[in-house]
Structures are given as C-alpha cells and as structure tokens.
Specification:
With 174 residues, this protein is mainly alpha-helical. It is 47% helix and 2% strand. The chain has a two-stranded antiparallel ribbon with strand order 1-2. The two termini are 29 Å apart.
C-alpha cells in the first residue's frame, strides 16, 4: 500500500487517528505526519558523525518511548527519520553538494523522482558524511529487526490498510 498523499495533513492529528496512517514505502510522508514530525524533526541532524550520533540516539530514544506507549505511528515515523538520516547522509557522502543530478528538472517532471535524462552529479566521497550514514543505518537496522516493530507493522496493515489486489503470479524461471 502506498502512502496516501491525498489527506489533509494540516488538519489530521495522527496520534488521535492512527487509522488514517499508511506505512507506505521508505520515507514517504516523513515531513507530513503530525504531531510526530514536530516531535522528531528538531532532533534530526547529520552534519558530523558526532552530531549524527546525538541525533540518531535521540530519535531511537523517541522510538523506544513510542513503543512503550504502544504508538505504532510514532514508532514508524521514528524509523522513517532514521532512514532519512541514513539516505541523506549517503547522498552528501557521495555528492558534496547533496545534489544527485546536474541541471534543471525538465518541464512536466517537477515533483517526480528520477533523473529523467539529467547528468549524474560528480562523485565526491565525504568520509564524515559516510560515518554519519553508518550511525543512522545501525539504528535503522535495530528498529527493523525489532520483533515488536515487525509485529506492529503487520498488525497495523492488517487492521487499517485495505487489502491489496490479488497476488501477482510468479514469473516462470528462465
């Protein structure tokens, strides 16, 4: 189930309405879902490994707090911020400017992901950002391996997300 971007995010308190939350893929909705965005975002930083460690530790602490409150949406939002810390740190680790592509986005493609024929920005390794990425990835892996988190994802999807269409047939081997 993909993330539902059609909701009125300015009006919805997802702590009160967890039934409206969709896990989605990756970091979808990370900067939209309140009150979690406002609770977690102030702690999200990755400029140096030291800053990233403080940030990842605090976000993981928030994850644990949400878990004690049986607040799955908070748990998943903390996971998304850890994932975003990892992916953004990796982007800056590989491209000093933080830009993956060179040149403007073609008309009609704004707001869509992908290069769409644009040139990839030069690779410039930043070891500090790489270390920051590793810090976030370790915390992200801890969340994703947490049996409580895995069970809560399953339960949330089962309880609130509509069933997907029939499973696609497997491709024949060969």
């Amino acid at each position: 189930m993909t993330f539902d971007y059609g909701l009125n995010f300015k009006e919805i308190d997802f702590r009160a309405r967890p039934d409206l939350y969709r896990v989605g893929k990756g970091e979808q909705g990370v900067l939209l879902v309140e009150p979690y965005k406002s609770e977690i975002l102030p702690h999200w930083r990755f400029k140096t490994p030291e800053v990233a460690q403080v940030s990842a530790d605090k976000i993981y602490e928030l994850y644990e707090h949400y878990k004690t409150q049986d607040d799955f949406v908070g748990m998943d939002m903390a996971r998304k911020f850890l994932q975003m810390g990892w992916t953004r740190s990796m982007r800056y680790a590989n491209h000093r400017s933080g830009q993956k592509y060179v040149g403007p986005v073609p008309e009609g493609r704004k707001g869509q992901s992908g290069a769409w024929g644009r040139e990839v920005a030069p690779f410039e390794r930043d070891e500090q950002k790489l270390e920051s990425a590793k810090i976030f990835k370790a915390k992200l892996d801890a969340v994703k391996a947490d049996p409580v988190y895995v069970e809560r994802v399953r339960r949330h999807r089962e309880q609130f997300e509509p069933p997907t269409t029939a499973a696609r047939p497997k491709k024949p081997a060969g």
